[in-house]
Design brief:
- By secondary structure, this protein is α+β, with helices and mostly antiparallel strands.
- It folds into 3 domains: 91 residues, PDZ domain (Pdz3 Domain); 201 residues, 2-enoyl-CoA Hydratase, Chain A, domain 1, CATH 3.90.226.10; 105 residues, no CATH class.
- It contains 16 helices and 21 strands.
- α12 packs across α15.
- The relative contact order is 0.09.
Length: 566
């Protein structure tokens, strides 16, 4: 019987030190690896609830992950035909996520940079918006204080050359233009443009740099006491932009404020709560989140405001989602202001983004958020159902977009604001004051022809830019410039050339709206986004209703709307 206390070699002699090391080394390495894995797991499980990949071996995460990996390896080794495994992996991931909720998603590596840039609030480039029309690259927007703006680029310029390459009249596409203009921050690019009214090409040297993606489109005074701020998303820089806009309005003696969140899809939760904090002079619950692996977390205002803001109106519609609904819900539940428009989208889920080893990312729903009264405003969703994606169509068909009485409440539970008003959850924020959709927005002839207004205006400005610049400032433009019947007829003929069949019976109904939109795009060419929004505002029923309600006061608005302790 062998002795395990004094092991011997094959010759019957006691083991040497080297022979003992050779036997026990594999065991020592195995124990070290196991211990390291255990320590890594313990560390990762305590990192504020975040999921951290500690090994490239998926079986370290879950036995089920190993099964998926095993199937993919069998396919790669044995499948009848060759297949791109990366595409198969992406399809497998997307298939898994379809069994979760509508907002958990997979972001391929090729798309991740653009997604992150939109939330971060900036990217590197030259800072222009362009449009390729009839083989010509038109500059339709120059980002204020960006590299192109500083170099002298103007809206209306037509790019003829980039570096030594002629790009006009050679069939270049959008991607080709981007490839020639993009580059690292600090690098230079030389451009030659044709400018209206000048015979010779203008040479412009641009140094690429950081380009802000503004989340506050415009801010200005609607009247002597009412300010207006349009927010298009909630990014990492939205709060700073909002505060800069707010300060400028306060300097113009603003008393009341309209915050426009229509068509705002949301973004960072913290951006919304930071903005809300500036609207509450007392400590108030703004929103709270909770999930299976997430304990309840409350977001409260701190009671320290930098600027005095009186009454508040928040504008929403069916395109207002996520962080937009958090903001509207906090204002409504705390009776801090009045919510105007149409029922919001209904997204009450919170996502976290996890970057994967190949540069792609997983955006996973980890919690629900609730308004201060306890409402969950997430609209119902079911797996393998098209109802969620077709919700807007159903609202249109039911008449909800035109009649407040047609709004469907999926959760009949009554919740109460701080002032005792009844509010409901289960499918978005229902506004305090309803504003119906303009029926022309769904007129097929209006929608199809409107798509060609920007192209028409580019041509129109080629021949009229210098004359229109002589009008003066924006206020003079709004009062003096009118789109004539002749210009409208030119546009209708232009749309016919693009394949839109003329409909005289519809043209009479949409004539005024077409003229307004043409005027707005002309104003955008002359006065940037401020001109565009100010022209549209003159006929915007939701903004007009907000002004009316803010001026009315009294019983038509929520009880604590004035926030008199500010």
């Amino acid at each position: 019987m062998p002795s395990y206390n004094n092991p011997k070699n094959n010759n019957g002699n006691p083991l040497s030190s080297r022979e003992k090391l050779n036997i026990f080394l594999p065991l020592l390495l195995a124990l070290t690896l196991a211990g390291g894995t255990w320590i890594g797991y313990q560390i990762s499980s305590q990192m504020n609830g975040s999921y951290v990949l500690v090994s490239n071996n998926n079986s370290q995460l879950s036995p089920r992950a190993g099964k998926v990996d095993e199937i993919l390896r069998f396919i790669d080794a044995r499948y009848l035909e060759g297949i791109e495994m990366e595409k198969l992996e992406d399809a497998a991931i997307e298939g898994m996520l379809k069994n979760l909720d509508p907002h958990s998603s997979y972001i391929a590596a090729a798309n991740l940079q653009g997604v992150n840039e939109s939330l971060a609030g900036g990217f590197e480039g030259i800072g222009v918006e362009f449009f390729v029309l009839e083989d010509t690259v038109y500059i339709v927007g120059v980002i204020p204080d960006g590299p192109s703006d500083k170099a002298g680029m103007e809206v209306g310029d037509k790019i003829i050359m980039i570096g030594d390459s002629i790009i006009a009249g050679v069939g270049i596409k959008n991607k080709g233009v981007i490839d020639k203009l993009k580059g690292e921050s600090g690098s230079g690019v030389d451009i030659k443009v044709k400018r209206s009214g000048l015979a010779e090409l203008q040479e412009i040297s641009i140094t690429r740099g950081e380009i802000p993606m503004r989340s506050v489109d415009v801010s200005y005074m609607l009247d002597a006491q009412t300010g207006y701020i349009k927010v298009n998303r909630f990014s990492g820089k939205t709060y700073a932009e909002f505060m800069t806009a707010l300060e400028a309005l306060i300097e113009k003696d603003m008393k009341d404020l309209v915050i426009d969140l229509r068509q705002n899809p949301g973004g960072y939760l913290n951006a919304a709560t930071d903005m809300l904090t500036q609207l509450f002079a007392k400590k108030k619950l703004l929103v709270y989140t909770e999930g299976r692996s997430y304990k309840r977390k409350e977001y409260n205002s701190n009671g320290r405001v930098l600027f005095k803001v009186g009454k508040v109106a928040v504008l929403i519609n069916e395109g207002s989602a996520s962080a937009s609904e958090i903001m509207a819900g906090a204002i409504q539940d705390n009776d801090r202001g009045i919510v105007i428009g149409r029922r919001s989208f209904g997204k009450g889920l919170v996502q976290e983004q996890y970057e994967l080893s190949d540069g792609s990312a997983l955006r996973l729903t980890v919690a629900r958020y609730f308004t201060p009264s306890g409402r969950l405003i997430q609209k119902p969703y079911e797996q393998e159902s098209d109802d969620y994606s077709n919700d807007l169509k159903k609202r249109f068909e039911s008449g909800e977009l035109y009649h407040k009485d047609s709004i469907k409440i999926s959760d009949s539970t009554k919740y109460y604001t701080t002032g005792g008003r009844v509010v409901y959850g289960g499918g978005g924020i229902i506004p305090d004051v309803f504003v119906p959709l303009d029926s022309m927005d769904h007129n097929p002839y209006f929608v199809r022809t409107s798509n060609y207004i920007p192209q028409f205006v580019y041509h129109y400005m080629d021949n009229n830019r210098q004359r229109l610049k002589q009008i003066g400032d924006l206020e003079a433009f709004i009062s003096e410039y009118q789109v004539s019947d002749e210009v409208l007829e030119d546009f209708v003929q232009f749309s016919e050339e693009k394949g839109i069949t003329r409909k005289e019976e519809d043209l009479g109904m949409i004539k005024s709206r077409l003229k307004l939109n043409i005027k707005a795009y002309v104003a955008q060419q002359l006065f940037r986004e401020l001109g565009f929004y100010k022209v549209l505002q003159t006929k915007d029923p939701t903004i007009q209703k907000a002004i009316e309600e803010l001026h009315r006061g009294g019983e038509s608005t929520p009880s604590a709307m004035n926030e008199s302790t500010i």
